[in-house]
Design a protein that fits this description.
about 375 residues; alpha+beta; DNA Polymerase III, Chain A, domain 2; 12-stranded antiparallel sheet; 6 helices
Length: about 375
């Protein structure tokens, strides 16, 4: 292999696959990045068998070939001094020379024969296939990803639960204390199916598919999900866990409803959270006609914030985790959020006024009414 390529372009595509490079503790997969040139196309790929990412771009080269380079290559390319990088690979020893201005590296490469194959499926092999607008898909991910659990002891809650119908794709995520659910249009071939995809892998979809990608095509085969858009592809293994039936936990009837302007509500909660930072983020939220009051206290002091609200229902006081509410408000796109209340110690629901199919359920925190506000964080 011999080629000359833009350092910035090569660095960008190297960084795209970085999160799929195996860690040192994963000895079943060569720790490295596949670099391949063929027919004027340069392809870069990495996989740790849990997730795989492949990207390609057009670049002229003198000789085709492929090599697996150590993960250090990503940082090396990023820090080269010149605008152009010259790469030459010995086809027998796989010794790779990398030159850019005054810098010259010799990297010990490996045969690409040892690199796991990136899954490719023919239409006949695909069990299910779908097509979705990239903007819709990424928005739905942003609306749900923050609600997943990071506790590996709860594997069913570390993923995003996707349910495909003929024309609608449903997303759900929960850490058992909150639940985020939304949907987007999809063109889907096959009968209704649900899959559970690791959230950390879907996070990469937001990162690697840019604004220029208009459509994402997906294939579900066996225990894998393959997504592609343009010259970029990502595959993820699926979780073999049972996700709870979310229809059973979302309340159908409510005793109160508030319409709250998001910006002042978000800023008030962020200020109140300053006193609880690093602690439990508990706030007492009182709602009555025309006003919502936020109170928080810790060993650092007390705070009280008020925000105007349009409210219908009986006066109510809730103890909620401020961080949970802030997470949801930050991804809202509407001017208002709708808060639906079902009782003091019952789940409440937040809805984005611009996307009313986006439902966010939060469990209240049970606080003994006899406890003083100064003791809330203790």
């Amino acid at each position: 292999m011999r080629l000359s390529v833009s350092r910035a372009l090569l660095a960008e595509h190297m960084q795209t696959v970085a999160k799929a490079v195996p860690g040192k503790i994963n000895t079943s997969v060569p720790e490295g990045v596949l670099l391949e040139s063929s027919d004027e196309v340069v392809t870069i790929a990495a996989t740790n068998l849990e997730i795989g990412i492949r990207t390609s771009f057009t670049a002229p080269h003198e000789a085709s070939g492929k090599v697996v380079l150590p993960a250090k290559i990503i940082e090396i390319i990023k820090r080269l001094p010149g605008d152009i990088v010259d790469i030459s690979v010995d086809e027998n020893s796989f010794l790779t020379e990398i030159k850019s201005e005054q810098s010259e590296f010799q990297i010990y490469g490996l045969s690409a024969e040892e690199f796991p194959l990136f899954p490719e499926f023919s239409p006949e092999e695909a069990q299910y296939s779908f097509q979705v607008e990239a903007a819709y898909f990424k928005r739905a991910l942003k609306q749900t990803l923050f609600a997943v659990s990071h506790d590996e002891g709860k594997p069913a809650f570390t993923g995003i639960y996707l349910t495909f119908n003929e024309s609608e794709l449903f997303f759900a995520a929960s850490d058992t204390f909150r639940l985020a659910a939304t949907s987007c249009p999809v063109s889907f071939s096959g009968k209704k199916i649900s899959i559970l995809v690791p959230a950390k892998n879907l996070q990469e979809v937001i990162r690697i598919f840019g604004e220029e990608e208009k459509t994402i095509e997906g294939v579900i085969v066996k225990n894998q999900l393959l997504l592609s858009s343009g010259e970029r592809k990502i595959f993820s293994r699926l979780l073999d866990e049972n996700f709870p039936n979310i229809e059973r936990v979302i309340p159908k009837n409510f005793i109160g409803q508030a319409l709250i302007k998001i910006t002042p509500f978000l800023h008030a909660l962020e200020r109140a959270a300053l006193l609880s930072e690093g602690m439990n983020y508990i706030a007492r939220i009182s709602i009555s006609e025309g006003i919502i009051t936020i109170r928080a206290a810790s060993k650092y002091g007390k705070i009280q914030e008020t925000v105007e609200v349009q409210y219908q229902g009986e006066d109510m006081e809730l103890s909620l985790n401020m961080r949970f509410i802030i997470d949801m408000l930050k991804v809202c796109e509407g001017e208002y959020c709708i808060l639906k209340i079902n009782g003091q110690n019952k789940p409440c629901v937040f809805i984005d006024s611009l996307h009313e199919d986006y439902i966010y359920l939060v469990l209240p925190i049970r606080v003994d009414p006899e406890i003083k506000e100064n003791d809330i964080a203790n």
